[in-house]
Amino acid sequence: MSLQFPKDFLWGGAVAANQLEGAYDIDGKGWSTQDVMPNGIKTPPTEVPTEDNMKLIGIDFYHRYKEDVKLFAEMGFKVFRTSIAWSRIFPKGDELEPNEKGLQFYDDLFDECHKYGIEPLVTISHYETPLHLAREYDGWVNRKLIGFYERYVRTIFTRYKSKVKYWLTFNEINSILELPFMSGGINTPREKLSKQDLYQAIHHEFVASALAVKIGHETNPDFKIGCMVLSMPIYPMTPHPNDVIKTMESDHKNTFFADVHARGYYPGYMKRFFKENGITIHFEPGDEEILKHTVDFISFSYYMSICETADPKLQIRGEGNMIGGVANPYLEASDWGWQIDPQGLRYILNAFYDRYQKPLFIVENGLGAMDQLVTNEKGEKTVEDDYRINYIKEHLIQVAEAIEDGVDLMGYTTWGCIDLVSASNAELKKRYGFIYVDRHDDGSGTLERYRKKSFYWYKDVISTNGNSLFE
Ligand code: BG6
């Protein structure tokens, strides 16, 4: 049997504004939550941006995007996922008028993509809430954020309606459960944040997301608007029914997010959860109707799977993408302890598709590793990153299996197609790219770009529409 990718499959790469643009206070940009997170999620935010924050300069994509987009084009990208930094468009978040220079930057960036036939895929909010909205309003806990987001969304939808077709409303929206500041701009420290406020904030995001779908379809009926969730298959640690039920309950914490986006209403298991935890979600008149504007597709990140168990003795937590969980004894892990499970990707693709029957889009997957820049026999600087090639190859083979299973998959964008600053640790030594960027955590480096071995490999994958994976 030969496995195949659909002929119009959207191959590409993904990044987020705050992790690569730099230029954190240039051309009218306001501060975002990321500008005060010099250590990612490892330490509490600082009062003001500090020089040790690698994101302030990032990889200077703001000034070098033309060179970078050209490299993406050389690999044959069909799609490029990036985000718009909300605080470039509305520096504080609550202004009435947008910042023209911020809008112009993305006009130029999208034009540059189209020059090479690359379709932009845009995340509207990727862990970069304007800081003012966090500090003055407590982020999404405050219902006013819906109005601010709506103004922002109307502005960018109108401005880019002929340049951007694919939109994602919130990056990894379920990560707010663990990371209220980074994900939801919630200033109240996590340990002081009540479940009531947390779930009310989530409700506000749901309403804002559904409003974006509604407004987007009114702005341009061709828009395809998706939600974006952090996916992490959860396996029961043993076949003991207690483990299976615990797994189901843990899973519900996450499926809640895609369920509301794809079905347009709150699932029964969450109503039970709210009752048992004394939570009452305040719905304003009209909210229920707005939620019925469901997404066109489900997009997600996939890096790893985890296990769940009801047995406290077995609850040994491993490291993991934002959420983490109980480690699986059968899997190897990356240098950062994220367990590698290509089959988990086939599993989650089937799980999503069985549940929603909506098109899917893998918008993040990849390996963060410590790369070594070397000079090859041709005298070129490169990275011999066979480990990255193997990782992506194994995952893509499972993607092809899922397509053969009948999953409707729109595309695949690898995370950090060019080296950028990591989200969880805010470090540059954790590299994901096909393109090496000469910049280091001590602030040194020329910012020069170099093609890694995986650059040529991915180019081949794209030009053969995936067939080279099976040679
Ligand atoms: C996802 C985020 O959680 O994982 C990205 O959407 C992030 O912003 C990526 O960079 C990888 O995580 P990290 O911490 O290795 O950068």
From TrEMBL:
Superkingdom of the source species: Bacteria
PANTHER family linked: 6-PHOSPHO-BETA-GLUCOSIDASE ASCB-RELATED, GLYCOSYL HYDROLASE
GO biological process: carbohydrate catabolic process
Name listed for the protein in its UniProt record: Amygdalase
Keyword terms, alphabetized: Glycosidase, Hydrolase
Keyword Hydrolase found: yes
Residues passing through the membrane, by range: none
Family, as annotated: Belongs to the glycosyl hydrolase 1 family.
The keyword Membrane belongs to this UniProt entry's keyword annotation: no
Pfam families: Glyco_hydro_1 (PF00232)
InterPro entries (UniProt xref): GH, GH_1_N_CS, Glyco_hydro_1, Glyco_hydro_1_AS
SUPFAM superfamilies assigned to the protein according to its UniProt record, in alphabetical order: (Trans)glycosidases
